[in-house]
Design the sequence.
């Protein structure tokens, strides 16, 4: 057998499964060998953290920061900072280039991969940020979404967070990620198609109907405020899976108003604290689902956030069928989450954020 | 908020997500509380193993065993034994009962959940069984498949294995599982629809075309014998993902002939040993994908096995998009797997299997 492979290639490649149409990113630059697995994260060296004050030059230059007046980009003084990922899954430079190879389809891995460093405080936790600070994080998500959607190469933008090593976080310092992709991912297509079928049949948005039913039954409700609702979904895949939805129909986060940002961060903080207190700070992922970024506002699709604590292992049955086994009924999960005691509210810090750690450690 | 939940219910429930149509098994009988997570497996007590000789009365009565002449069911003397799962995800007794609840759909959790205890040897490993013994395991899969498909309540039968704790195995003693479901899982529908679209367009089976292309290119080939091929798929989701496919078109394993069983177990053993040697016995899942069990032989669908070593963590991006990031190109993975040295072949044991441990430990 003559290996004729593409090991030299450095640009990640998008490949499409010819059976189900699922796209995969083959990250050739990382090119992991057998001996690279089993070692814990190789992205952190000793106690050094590239996301702390003074280490701004250890990340690619920032694309956005909210910072104290009079401080300079890529130096301390910021309270939320967005930078390109140093080890991106997709590359920002280049033209899209699609190719066939017999029955297979591939595309070069063009896209954006950014990191939202939510706070300079190395020991903070998203749920424990004060509300004003959390609002800034949401504004950063929105601002980056709006900027990235201007790039005509991108079709879909996903904002997500991995909290804890078991949920895939490779750096301890709290952060979220934004990835813009040149294709619409399968999962987004499935959601949009399902929602469109429902709309065709009933002339209503399925997400709006879910909100109505959950508000009426209350048994799966976790929290609610003027603009948002959080609940454990009827067909939860995972124990304590919780979704947050805006009550007002909108298909993406790009048009969030100030009152909505306030209520979204309020319910997000409340929900994450309930999960944290009920389950002793479990690893979790959250994902913001929006419509494709190149589409206009859609009556059929409704943006939302899905929060998935990682408490069980996904095994062969789930992988083979897409059929999940959830050992905790969502009605029980919601009751535990509602009944948990919340820590006393954090006293809101002054309008101008005063960083606790501002000494320069750059060397 | 008045909780009106169904905590008392003991039968698992199937629930359908109203957006994407994904079914979930809500295992109310397990009813895990927050404090139940974080503990490792609760299915094993001390050093006791219900799958070892002498403990046959600690499992539900066997539904199949291949055993020495003159030995009795549910007693030592077997070399491969199939029993109902003591903690089944779905219940075998009852009639199907579908219900709506507003916009939601649910069904009682009727199905079969069986465990294939591949060998009485507690310390054995599927890849290290001698070839004759591994053939018996394949025959057990096929025999159970044929028996379960007679039940008109079942639409789909999945055979899978979780190897290692990180892949979801809760008992150490090597075993596989069989689940029969009253609905066709989403993943199977996607595969069948994708394969049908390809067939409609080209009048050929997509799986047969994949085999042809992999045999021609050779760069992703791992192993091949007269009846089967094993390779790392073009759009591998996971590092070292490997598929095994029969070269002769068939949509399920039910009609496997003796020569095919021999070649399937031969290539399975070879492929698992290559994975084991290259990656130091990694956790893995394998899944046999067949057409729905109530359908006739289909020209569009082709049964196969997908083996997925668990080397990376699935994080927020993958969950949110169904879009995987694979750090090892399949061409590299296949080369590592081909190049690995295989341990010397195990000397085939005599036709009549002589168990190494036959003392009764039942108390």
Sequence:
């Amino acid at each position: 057998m003559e290996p004729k492979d593409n090991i030299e290639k450095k640009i990640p490649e998008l490949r499409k499964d010819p059976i189900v149409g699922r796209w995969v990113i083959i990250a050739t630059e990382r090119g992991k060998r057998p001996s690279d697995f089993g070692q814990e994260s190789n992205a952190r060296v000793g106690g050094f953290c590239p996301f702390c004050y003074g280490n701004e030059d250890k990340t690619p230059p920032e694309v956005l920061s909210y910072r104290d007046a009079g401080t300079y980009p890529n130096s301390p003084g910021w309270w939320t900072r967005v930078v390109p990922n140093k080890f991106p899954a997709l590359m920002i430079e280049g033209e899209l280039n699609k190719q066939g190879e017999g029955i297979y389809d591939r595309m070069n891995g063009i896209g954006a991969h950014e990191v939202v460093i939510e706070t300079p405080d190395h020991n903070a936790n998203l749920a424990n940020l004060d509300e004003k600070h959390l609002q800034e994080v949401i504004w950063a998500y929105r601002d980056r979404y709006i900027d990235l959607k201007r790039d005509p190469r991108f079709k879909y933008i996903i904002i997500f967070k991995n909290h804890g090593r078991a949920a895939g976080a490779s750096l301890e310092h709290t952060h979220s990620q934004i990835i813009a992709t040149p294709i619409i991912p399968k999962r987004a297509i499935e959601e949009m198609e399902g929602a469109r079928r429902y709309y065709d049949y009933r002339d209503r948005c399925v997400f709006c109907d879910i909100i109505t039913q959950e508000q009426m039954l209350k048994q799966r409700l976790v929290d609610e405020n003027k603009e948002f609702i959080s609940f454990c979904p009827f067909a939860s895949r995972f124990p304590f899976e919780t979704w947050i939805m805006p009550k007002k129909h909108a298909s993406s986060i790009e048009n969030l108003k100030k009152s909505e940002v306030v209520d979204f961060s309020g319910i997000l903080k409340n929900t994450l604290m309930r999960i944290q207190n009920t389950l002793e700070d479990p690893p979790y992922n959250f994902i913001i689902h929006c419509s494709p970024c190149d589409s206009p506002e859609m009556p059929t699709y409704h943006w939302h956030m899905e929060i998935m604590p990682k408490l069980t292992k996904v095994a062969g049955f789930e992988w083979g069928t897409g059929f999940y086994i959830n050992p905790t009924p969502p009605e029980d999960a919601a009751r535990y989450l509602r009944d948990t005691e919340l820590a006393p509210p954090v006293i809101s810090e002054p309008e101008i954020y005063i960083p606790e750690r501002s000494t320069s450690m750059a060397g």
User: Anything to note?
Assistant: Residues 117 and 175 of chain A are 5 Å apart (CA to CA). The first strand of chain A starts at residue 13 and ends at 16. Chain A has two domains: 13-18+48-184, 187-339. The helical segments of chain A are 131-148, 186-202, 206-217, 258-279, 316-321, 330-339.
